[in-house]
Amino acid sequence: MIAVVLLGGLLGILNSTMAAVATDTLATTFDASLSTVGWASTGFLLAVTATIPFTSWAVDRFGGKRLWLTGLVLFTAGSLAAGLAPDVGSLIAFRTLQGVGAGLLDPLVLILLARAAGPHRAGRVMGLMGLVLSLGPALGPIAGGVILANLSWRWMFLLSVPVGAIAYLLARRVLPQDVPAASGPTRIRLDTLGLALLAPGFAAVVLALSQTAEHAAFTAWQALTPLALGLVLLVGYAVDALRARRSPPLIDLRLFANRGFTASVTIMGLGGLASFAALFALPLYYQQAHGHGAFAAGLLLAPFGLAGAVAMPIAGRLSDRVGARGLATAGAVVAGLSGLVLTQVRAGTSEVWPVLATFTLGTGAAFFSAPTMGSLYRTLPARVVAQGSSVLYMLNQLGAALGIALVTLIIQTASTPIGGFHNVFWLVGALILIILTAIPLLPGRPRPPAVAGELTGEDEIAVPGAPGG
Question: How many CB atoms lie within 10 A of CB 10?
Fold first, then answer.
């Protein structure tokens, strides 16, 4: 079951990162501007972000298996349509459909795995999930480069069709038929006002950050307008979610009253920001300082993802035995030192040194990410796992968009390309330092399996409409 779920989860991540290397090719093919073609990726990202809050409700309303199969159908149909798109407008529309499918699949990966594993094996399973998160950004640009060098750009999307079909057939056979948690007379109503505020609110903030990256300025009206709209919508959601009400909100903000949950999502959000900043800056360094092409730069970046893919499962398994704090602290220290090393490379520095520093950076990030993800699911009662997963994924999307925007701004405003590269990794070091201050707030050693699912004291999270809430 775990392998089948991870296969579906890899689809969206791999396809998204593959498409990122095709912007120039698509602009030439459709005789369109880079900013227009960029909406094929932006539309995908916005659709993912807007769909995630709905998924947190729908998984309990319709059941995990049914929603998973629906996500696979939407993603595969979007892939087929995108691969056959006759013009740039239809490509953007079909990529948005892909994003809706990915917005169902991405948080469901965590939800299905967390429910199947239980609290006492959360670290091990989250480590496997981290393998997918690490491999996607590392292998996507390489796979995209190989396809563009040997096949039509259309195959970047069409290859997802048979993989999606196989994942669908396997999921029908392997995934257990779960009963929706909320059905019949106790069915929880969809918080339609909350969805109308939260989904476009997060999407508007992501759009603002994407526009910041495109215009290399936080003060551009194209960024400030959606940012202001997004903040208004999110504040409106917070006011609505915290008022007295009969039915529970889409995401209960009282989750953040639990310090372990807050520390976990903060660490993962900042870690994602640091990782995406590194993933965006390193290829530019190899291209600008060493004159490598996009494919060679992707290969030199691969050690970051491969290190995470190897270290994530190990760190996750260890965290089930010894807890998250010690492993996360060691990982953050290694990642921080690796970032400092990258602030010292020059244009004439041999590629060996940044590659080694990139490998240790990926290893360190894995050792604070997998235990943190595991501790998140040991903290949450089963009834709010879906909400916790939605929060984690939305913050991950924000971290990705913010990381790209900051790197673009830093590099374009630096006096020299190398100076901009150094500034990016000073930022990475600062983010790791903040992560180190949050790690002591993570839950301590996991309790024995017999009582691991019981929450008492400060770990208790009251949820409106839930027993005891």
Answer: 21
In Å, what is the CA distance from 373 to each residue of 310, 315, 361, 377, 378? 16, 11, 18, 7, 9
Does 192 fall in a domain?
no
In whole angstroms, give the CA distance from residue 178 to residue 176.
Answer: 6
Two structure tokens written together for 144: 């995209």
Question: Would residue 466 count as lying in a domain?
Answer: no
Q: Which domain holds residue 423?
A: 251-461
Q: Give the CB-side neighbour count of residue 266, counting CA atoms within 13 A.
A: 20
Same domain, 34 and 92: yes
Average pLDDT, the chain: 81
Residues 2, 26 share a domain: yes
Q: Amino acid identity, residue 44? A: F
Q: Specify burial of residue 56 (Cβ count, 10 A radius: 0-12, 13-18, 19+).
A: buried
Beta strands in 134-187 (DSSP E): none
Query: Following CA atoms 131, 137, 138, 144 in sequence, which dihedral angle do they give, to the nearest 10 degrees?
Result: 130
Task: Verify that 272 and 245 share a domain, yes or no.
Answer: no
Mean pLDDT lowest among 23-32, 188-197, 248-257, 393-402: 393-402
pLDDT at residue 386 is higher than 90 = no
For the chain, what is the domain count? 3
